[in-house]
Specification:
single chain, 198 residues, DNA polymerase, domain 1, 2 domains, two-stranded antiparallel ribbon, 10 helices, 52% helix
């Protein structure tokens, strides 16, 4: 029986992905998008979102790797200027509240998370899991197990929703019902199939 529904934030609850940011860095640095993704999504982002380095050190690392100025990296300000909430998703979370435990589980750094919490202050999440506080990131099984333990549920009692296939697959491997998010309509169909909504 499903007891909890767990949402990713960026690309699911929030209207934001890093793709426009990568395009910005590409135009600025004249480096390939492949290299930019490799730099940002490698060791630096793992350390930033698991809370082991500061935003300043992350931006210094990106600036050195791409040959741009430190103040041009704009990891946080780019996010803050563009992120918005998805109000259809907000209505869905509100609908689930009470019948199910609701949570979010996000790979996110501290500055972005502080800002995001303000955006979501009126939402209806029972649990809030951020990688920067847990010191672990998706797709590591450790972060899912941490969330399950805190919610006091078994893997088969949870549904996890994420836009990244690697995160969906890793959650599925430990027994969590997992849905790759491609839009609210498709999500509703899949939640109905699981009996979460009618």
């Amino acid at each position: 029986m499903i007891k909890a529904v767990i949402f990713d934030l960026g690309g699911v609850v929030l209207n934001y992905t890093n793709d426009p940011y990568y395009s910005y860095l590409h135009k600025l640095s004249k480096r390939s998008l492949h290299l930019i993704r490799k730099v940002v999504e490698g060791k630096l982002i793992h350390e930033l979102e698991s809370g082991s380095i500061s935003l300043d050190n992350f931006e210094k690392g990106v600036s050195m790797a791409l040959g741009i100025k430190r103040n041009e990296v704009k990891w946080f300000s780019f996010y803050m200027d563009r992120v918005t909430v998805d109000h259809e998703m907000e209505r869905l979370v509100k609908r689930l509240k009470g019948k199910y435990t609701t949570a979010y589980l996000s790979n996110i750094d501290k500055p972005r998370y502080v800002y995001t919490k303000k955006l979501l202050k009126t939402w209806y999440f029972d649990y809030k899991f951020a990688s920067c506080n847990i010191k672990s990131r998706k797709p590591s099984p450790a972060i899912y197990n941490y969330a399950l333990k805190k919610m006091k549920i078994k893997p088969g009692e949870a549904v996890f929703i994420d836009d990244k296939i690697e995160n969906v697959r890793s959650a599925r491997k430990i027994g969590i019902h997992s849905i790759r998010f491609k839009g609210i309509k498709g999500l509703r169909v899949k939640l109905a199939h699981l009996g979460v909504i009618s």
